[in-house]
Structures are given as structure tokens and as C-alpha cells.
Amino acid sequence: MTTALIYDANCLQHETGHHPEKPARFSVILEALKNDAVLWPQLARLTPREAGDEDIVRCHSEQLIEQIRRLCECGIPYIDLDTVISKQSFAVARRAAGAVIAGVDQVFTGEAQNAFALVRPPGHHAMPSRAMGFCLFNNAAIGARYAQAVYGAERVLIIDWDVHHGNGTQDIFYSDPTVFYFSMHQYPYYPGTGSASERGQGRGDGTTLNIPLREATSARDHRQAFSDALQAIEAKFPPDLIIISAGFDSRRGDPLGGLLLEDVDFREMTKEVMGMAERHAQARVVSVLEGGYNLDTLGETVRTHIAALLS
Q: What is the pLDDT of residue 1?
């Protein structure tokens, strides 16, 4: 059993210019992984296919797919003030979603114990009918729905430790009791959602858990809240798949965040998630890159996370 690393250098063609979500994010992560002479040979390295429309429409409207396709084909440079696109962005975003699908395939067929999708653009702000916050399609959500449709997953847990609240993921599953969405994030902060009172609705009441954190919350308090939340979730919602929306902008020093986690904290959180997966989900964990914008630290932080997945 191993860890699958799923990536495609074509993601560099999602050109964003002078923007925090830039191609260099991918490059520094891949360089850090390749420079680890012990870790790199142990990874099962895979190239994803593009997600098809049938995969995307489980989470997004056909109108959104067509809007993004049309804007990219026409060379329109923005979807909104935050979300930059280029001609290749539609194809790149489909491949990012496809990377999570490939990770789901790997863990359900037993080819790998867990997987990391090294992708851009990120996904957790993408809503059913709206791309926003650097995100075009919601990669984690598409992966969760694929696991349900293809492998019959009954209880999918999405853990989001990005510094920003994943409003898109929450919205997609807000009334769904089969997908539990758990987010820890800086609050109040972009996009303005994610208060503790947002717990789901209808049949999904209680399967959304938000833990908003003040700026400069200590890493110790952050980690304790994370551990306590995992214990509470495990007691009521033992998952058969865990997807991590792995945003590393919650690390100390990120230019778009104000939280204080260090690399060691991501390592320990990863191990806690793996422990839950081993108890309930036959060790199935699929992690997907979300944010993380400090190019001086991002590579090593992600390397630490993947090394923990491989341990």
C-alpha cells in the first residue's frame, strides 16, 4: 500500500499573472517532493483525466459549466475581481477535478491507501452555480459525489483546514445527511460565511460543523479544537471515506491568512485524520490542495503532509 500523488504539469497553463494563486505554487511543491530522495520514489505518481460533464453536474449547474467554457474560449481574463482565468483554465479546472476522482479510484480499488491531488485552481469556494474565490469547480465536492455514485460510499467526511471557509462545499452539501462538512477557518474573514450557527438544514441539520477561529489563535488552541471536533464527528458520523480540503494558508506567515499553524501541526492533524480513516474507512483518505500562498514555505509544508500520509 502506498500514497498516490496525482498531478499534471498542464495546470501551469492556468495563467493568472500577478495573482496569489499562481503557477509557481505547483512548481515549488513538486520541487520539494522531488528533492526528498526517500519520499519521492515511494509515491505512486499518476496523471489524471479530465472530469466529464457527468462528474461535474453532480455538484454544479450545466449553466456554470457552459459559462466557464465560454469565458475561457473568448479569452475573458476574469470571472470576478478575485478569480482570474485564461484560455486553458477550463481544461485545467476539469483536470483538477479529475485528479480527485482518480484519487477516489485509487483508494476504493485498493491501488493506494491514500492519495494527494496536487492541483490548481483550488475548489472549495466554487458554489453550485457560481465560480468565485480563485475556484472554478469544487474539486473535493466532485470527488465526494463520484465516490457515492460509483462506489456506493454512504458517509463521506470532508475536512477543510484552509484559512478561508469553504462556502461552496458547505452550500453543495448543506441539506445532505450523507456528506459531513467540517471546517476550521479564520473568522470573520473572506468569504464571510462559516459561523458556528451554520449547522446544515433539513435532513442535513447537524452534518455541517464550523469552528471559526480568531486571527492569531495559537497553534496549540487550534490543534486542540481540531482534535475535539474529530472526536465528536467520529462518535456520530463514522465515515467510509475522508476527503481533506488541504489549504496550507492556515500556516504561520501566509500572506492571505492570520493563523499560526506550523508544519508539525499539519503532520499531526494528518495523522489524526488517518487514524479515523483506519478505524472506519479502511484507511481511505483523499487529500486535495486548496490554498497556500507563501512560496518560501509551501513546498516544505506540503511535503510534510504527504510524508505523513505515507507513514
A: 74
Nearest to residue 185, comparing CAs of 100, 39, 290?
290
What distance in Å separates the CA atoms of residue 117 and residue 5, rounded to the nearest whole number? 6
Which residues does the annotation mark as catalytic? 125
Backbone angles phi, psi at 180, to 5 degrees: -100, 125
Backbone phi, then psi, for 288, in 5-degree steps?
Answer: -130, 135
257 vs 185: CA distance, rounded Å: 10
User: CB–CB of 149/180 below 8 Å?
Assistant: no
What letters, b where the CB count within 10 A reaches 16 and e where it falls short, cover 106-128? bbbeeebbbbbbbbbbbbbbbbe
Residue 254: left if φ>0, alpha if ψ -120 to 50, beta else—which one?
beta
> Beta-strand (E) ranges in 192-284?
208-213, 241-246
Tens of pLDDT, residue by residue over 93-139, are 999 999 999 999 999 999 999 999 999 999 999 999 999 999 999 99
Assign 3-state DSSP to the chain and report helix, strand, coil percentages, each to 5. 40, 15, 45
Question: Could you give the CA distance from residue 55 to residue 141 in angstroms, rounded to a whole number?
Answer: 10
Distance, in Å, from the CA atom of 158 to the CA atom of 148, rounded to the nearest integer, reads: 13
Q: What would the grid cell of residue 265 be?
A: 501541526
CA distance 126 to 1: 33
Could you tell me which residues are beta bridge partners of residue 84?
78
* Residue-range domain boundaries for the chain: 3-310
- Fold (CATH) for 3-310: Arginase; Chain A (3.40.800)
| DSSP string covering 233-245 | HHHH---SEEEEE
